């Protein structure tokens, strides 16, 4: 399965809904999307990963890169994920300490800390 | 011992194929269903890393994957042709919170090894002047699933 991406705006947050597989082949598309959003002035991103079937370290690298870019503008990058097999990868790499991970888009949009 | 071998040009789009083949052979070999996700992720990480090394070194040789079914374990070997790049990599990959510079290629490679080390109990990383090899093994249940 390929990668699907769609974006929408809720208040000052931009929701990036990701579906499919994020790997070494598809991750560049996600990177382009995040770079484009930041270049267009969207600095508060919520990446909804509920539709993601597969995530590897290349995808993690892209998310970390996105975080770096929004932080340069005092922005934020929050993740929405409830899938244990995806959460496990964030835990293994210690990235649960780096990304705020929420159970729903509503929760991520409401979060302010 | 039964073996399935796969060789693919060092292109990102073929890594998914390697994951699918590895998962199918692992299932056939009797690797527990609950562990198949880990097999898929680990072989994907190893192949992504090998593709990155081949591209980085300008190598046009294929990445090699061997799927080896033994009596009590299932092993996957992913071989690259990049000289000495992985020497001493294993054991120094304690997962650390990634720094904001982690989107560099090298950091991705390191994160890939960190994921493999975190996922797979039985893993060995070998490297010499001819290339590197990541060998990973999982236990299999006594009665393999029939096709």
Automatic annotation (TrEMBL), chain A:
Stretches assigned to the STAS domain: 3-112
MF annotations from Gene Ontology: anti-sigma factor antagonist activity
InterPro entries, alphabetized: Anti-sigma_ant, STAS_dom, STAS_dom_sf
Source species: Streptomyces nanshensis
Function summary: Positive regulator of sigma-B activity. Non-phosphorylated RsbV binds to RsbW, preventing its association with sigma-B. When phosphorylated, releases RsbW, which is then free to complex with and inactivate sigma-B.
Top-level taxon of origin: Bacteria
Cross-referenced PROSITE patterns: STAS
The keyword Lipid metabolism is assigned to this record: no
The entry's keywords: Phosphoprotein
Pfam families reported for this sequence: STAS
Family: Belongs to the anti-sigma-factor antagonist family.
Keyword Phosphoprotein (UniProt): yes
Name of the protein: Anti-sigma factor antagonist
TrEMBL record, chain B:
Keywords, in A-Z order: Kinase, Serine/threonine-protein kinase, Transferase
Region annotation Disordered: where it falls in the sequence: 79-108
Low complexity bias spans: 80-102
Domain named Histidine kinase/HSP90-like ATPase: residues: 8-138
Keyword check for Transferase: yes
InterPro entries tied to this protein: Anti-sigma-factor_SerPK (IPR050267), HATPase_C_sf (IPR036890), HATPase_dom (IPR003594)
Protein name per its UniProtKB record: Anti-sigma regulatory factor
């Amino acid at each position: 399965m390929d990668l699907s991406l769609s974006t929408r705006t809720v208040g000052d947050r931009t929701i990036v809904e990701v579906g499919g597989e994020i790997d070494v082949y598809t991750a560049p598309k996600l990177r382009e999307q995040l770079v484009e959003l930041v270049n267009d002035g969207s600095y508060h991103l919520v990446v909804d990963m509920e539709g993601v079937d597969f995530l590897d370290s290349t995808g993690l690298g892209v998310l970390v890169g996105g975080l770096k870019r929004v932080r340069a503008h005092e922005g934020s990058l929050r993740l929405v994920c409830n899938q244990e097999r995806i959460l496990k990868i964030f835990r293994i790499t210690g990235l649960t300490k780096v990304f705020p991970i929420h159970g729903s888009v509503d929760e991520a949009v409401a979060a302010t800390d | 011992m039964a073996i399935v071998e796969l060789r693919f040009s060092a292109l990102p789009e073929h890594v998914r194929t390697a994951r699918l083949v590895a998962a199918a052979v692992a299932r056939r070999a009797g690797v527990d269903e609950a562990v198949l996700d880990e097999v898929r992720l680990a072989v994907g990480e190893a192949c992504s890393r090998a593709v990155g090394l081949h591209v980085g070194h300008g190598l046009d040789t294929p990445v090699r994957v061997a799927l080896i079914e033994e009596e009590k374990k299932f092993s996957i070997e992913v071989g690259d042709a990049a000289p000495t790049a992985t020497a001493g990599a294993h054991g120094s990959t304690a997962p650390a919170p990634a720094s904001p510079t982690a989107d560099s290629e090298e950091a991705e490679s390191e994160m890939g090894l960190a994921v493999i080390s975190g996922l797979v109990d039985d893993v060995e990383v070998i490297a010499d002047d001819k290339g590197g090899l990541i060998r990973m093994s999982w236990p299999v249940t006594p009665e393999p699933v029939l096709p």
